[in-house]
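Example record

The entry below shows one chain as it appears in the dataset: sequence first, then structure tokens.
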Amino acid sequence: MNTRLPLLKIESILRNHLYPFRCDCHAQANSTLSVHLYGERYPGEELTVLGITDDQCRDAANLVRLAQELRVELYATHGALLSRPAGADD
């Protein structure tokens, strides 16, 4: 049986590796986690990922891999927004 790290530890690792994005992790009823990422410059949620398994959260190495995947997804889906200079309004 896979066990995951405590929720506070998971959030801490993800926050360190996803800075400057903020994140919140929530345990779900189906024994998975959801991660919500928020941008620093733009209000609102940037990305939500559901169904993160215990296996993905069992140790720091797996969480670093997860953070890398989340960062790739952020830039793939929000690349234009994330590359705009601060204060550049269209």
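Notes for this example: The CA atoms of residues 38 and 44 lie 6 Å apart. The longest helix spans residues 60-83.
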